[in-house]
Each structure stands twice: as C-alpha cells, then as structure tokens.
Design brief:
single chain; about 400 residues; alpha/beta; Rossmann fold; 2 domains; 8-stranded mixed β-sheet; 7-stranded parallel β-sheet; 15 strands; about 45% helix; binds adenine
Length: about 400
C-alpha cells in the first residue's frame, strides 16, 4: 500500500492525532488493519470494530490484537446483538473522531449514545449507503458534528466502487459457486459506479449482461454502454445470475423470484442485506438447504428454487477478501488524510456533510502515480492564462 505507507511515514513524525481517540467501524480485514496502524502511528488511540456481521477476517483481528496491541472487536458470523455490543464497545472509549462504513456507528451516536456527540469533533463515512443516510440526517438538521463524504471523493468512487467492487464481486461469485460465467445471462441491479464495475467484469468474463435501473439517466447510460435494460422482474425470468448493488431495499422481491429462472444465483454487493428480500425467502420458502459453503438453496412456495450467496450480505467481503489492496490503498489514504484535515480544521466546520477537499484527491492521485512510476503533463503558463481568459478561441 504505497500511498497509505507514504502518509503513514509522515504521520509517524508529525503525530497529527496525538491525544485523540478514534472509533472505527469498518470491514475488518487486512487492508483495514493497515489504516488503523497508520492512524495509530499518527498518535491516535484506536478502537476498531466491524461494520457488518459477516465481513470480518478473524485471523486479521487476532493478529491486530496480539501482534499490534490494538483494541479490535467483532468476529465473522457474529449475531445482531454481538454486532451492536461491539459498536457500543468502541463508543465506550469516548472517541473524539468516528470513522464509519455504512452509518450504523454514526446512527448510534445520534440515538442511544447521543451523550457522546458533544465531544466528537467529526467523522468520515466510507460508503454510498452511509452517505445516503447522512444526507437525510443533514436535511433533517439532526447531524451533531461535521461528517466527510469519503465515498464521493474522486480517488475513492472512480476506483473503489468501480474496479474494486467489480473485481471483488467476481471473486466472491467465483469462490462460492465455481460456475462458468461465459455464455451465461447475468443481471446487474443498479448502474452506479459499483454496478458499472460489476457489469463490466461480468461482460469481460463472457456473460451477456442486462442492467436494471430506476434512474432514467443511468438507464440511458447503460443502454449506450451496450447493455440491455429492463425491469428486474422481467430480467430475472431468464437470468443465470443476478447481483444487486443499489443501496436500496427490496430490489429483488420474493414475488419476482417465483417467476425467476429456476436455480438462479443471487448475490448482493450493496452495503446491507436487504437488497434481496432475504427475510421473505426465510419466512415464505418451503425449506432451505446449504448446498455449498456460502450458498443457500431456497425452495419457494410455488416449487421454484433459487441459490442465495452469503445470506444476501456483501458477497465480495463475506465470500471474497474485499477490494484488492491497490484499491484500498487509495480509499484508505483518503480516509487518513480526511481524518487529519478534520483535526486541523474542525473549529471552522459546522454540523454538515462535507465533500472531501479537492487537494486531498489530488495529493492521493499524485502519490499513486509516483508509486507506479507514471509521469504526466502539466499546463504551461500560456495554457494557464488561456484557462483564465474568455477570448475568442481561434
Ligand atoms: N475492505 C475494507 N473495507 C472495504 C470496503 N468498504 N469494500 C471492500 N473491501 C473493503
């Protein structure tokens, strides 16, 4: 992780987080551990837990505890109660800063743990779902401290959401099914940056891809990118695979599955496990059976059957290893720099959702290019002048 390492080296000397405690709720896997250690080297006291019951890497948690003496909570397969107990445990440290993925930690300090909100100087949010929740909180005027929208930083979503989710979703799909993708019909629900990445990689492996969308502009984009666009229910009738990446609930409804192609493989790469109606699958199916590790076959009430991967939770982290290291290097570099920015600027900030400053995006891009030994051009003085003028162009 050359970008995060460069930042970590600087943090070691400057200690921007000296005396501060940071509570983090992220997917706890190896790359996340490196972010936690970079912040620790910057002087922070770290309290880390998982932001999802099924995405922790238990070996990493063990190593962070025993080899690096970090306070880390969570385990893969934890119950809902354990999950919340762990979120509460990191909040018991009375943090100054929160770093969240999905918004559950942030919600807690605005509800049951609101006694903590006065001492928190602000925080960062990693993902689309969490940012959507923050937008609602900001609109309702209930945000109690500044939050940074890391998801929408260019150096995050262009790469993490598209190439990261694209590749790690394929990993989860392939590891759990061992099925051929070439020649299959695949449906991707949602054509945001995550959906784009998934569709692109499925196509690359030889699938014929259909996209479903609710946003007409994104639907046009999908058509122009060469995909068929149709409603979910229709698309499922002939599909071999369907993958959700929308941030919305009930995208694949139980009722749609009654008429889906028998044996269709269902997976989700969105933050929460409500994109596919897993509750209805559980309550309304005749029975279910574990047919492979991470694959549950549901026998529906009308005799149809479908295969659900990883309980409908993020397939790329629960069956795969999360985004590739080169991607998380950039995403977590943004997290680290935004946390530093927050410490330096929190007195000027208010209870709002902030975009990541453009300088931070630029500096992550510069370090990344340097680490890859890639040179690029810059504008000369005449061009800079041209940029600043409104004269006739010829
Ligand atoms: N690894 C750590 N956090 C991740 C995330 N939000 N998505 C994918 N892989 C990750």
């Amino acid at each position: 992780m050359p970008v995060l390492s460069a930042i970590r080296e600087r943090f070691k000397g400057e200690k921007p987080f000296r005396g501060l405690s940071i509570a983090m709720a992220l997917h706890v896997e190896a790359k996340t551990g490196v972010l936690a250690l970079a912040l620790k080297d910057g002087g922070a006291v770290i309290h880390l837990t998982s932001c999802n019951p099924l995405t922790s890497d238990d070996d990493v948690i063990g190593s962070l505890r025993s080899d690096f003496s970090l306070d880390v909570h969570g385990r893969k397969g934890e119950s809902r109660d354990e999950y919340y107990a762990n979120l509460n445990a990191v909040l018991d440290s009375r943090p100054d800063i929160i770093i969240d993925d999905g918004g559950d930690l942030t919600r807690l300090v605005h509800t049951e743990r609101s006694d903590l909100s006065d001492r928190i100087i602000g925080g960062n949010e990693e993902t689309t779902t969490g940012v959507n929740r923050l937008r609602v909180m900001e609109k309702k005027n209930i945000l109690k401290f500044p939050m940074f929208d890391v998801n929408d930083a260019v150096m995050k979503h262009y790469f993490d959401n598209r190439y990261g989710t694209g590749q790690s979703t394929m990993e989860g799909l392939l590891v759990s099914t061992n099925l051929l993708i070439a020649g299959k019909l695949a449906v991707v629900c949602g054509y945001g940056y995550c959906g784009k990445g998934i569709a692109m990689r499925l196509r690359g492996l030889g699938a014929v891809v259909t996209v479903t969308e609710v946003d007409p502009t994104k639907a046009v984009e999908a058509v122009m990118d060469g995909y068929t666009v149709m409603p979910v229910r229709d698309a499922l009738k002939t599909a071999d695979f369907a993958i959700t990446a929308t941030g919305m609930k009930s995208v694949i409804k139980y009722s749609d599955l009654l008429t889906a192609k028998p044996g269709i493989v269902l997976a989700n790469s969105g933050h929460f496990n409500n994109e596919i109606e897993v509750d209805n699958l559980d309550s309304r199916s005749r029975r279910k059976e574990e047919v492979r590790k991470n694959v549950t076959r549901y026998f529906l009430e009308n005799g149809n059957h479908v295969d659900l991967l990883s309980e409908g939770r993020l397939v790329n982290l629960s069956a795969g290893q999360g985004h590739p290291v080169e991607i998380m290097d950039m995403s977590f570099a943004i997290q680290a720099l935004v946390a530093e920015y927050l410490v330096k600027n929190h007195e000027k900030l208010s209870r709002k959702l902030y975009a990541v400053p453009a300088d931070i995006d630029r500096s992550v891009a510069e370090i990344k290019l340097k680490s890859m030994n890639v040179n690029y051009d810059s504008l000369d003085s005449g061009q800079l002048e041209y940029l600043d003028s409104w004269e006739e162009g010829t």
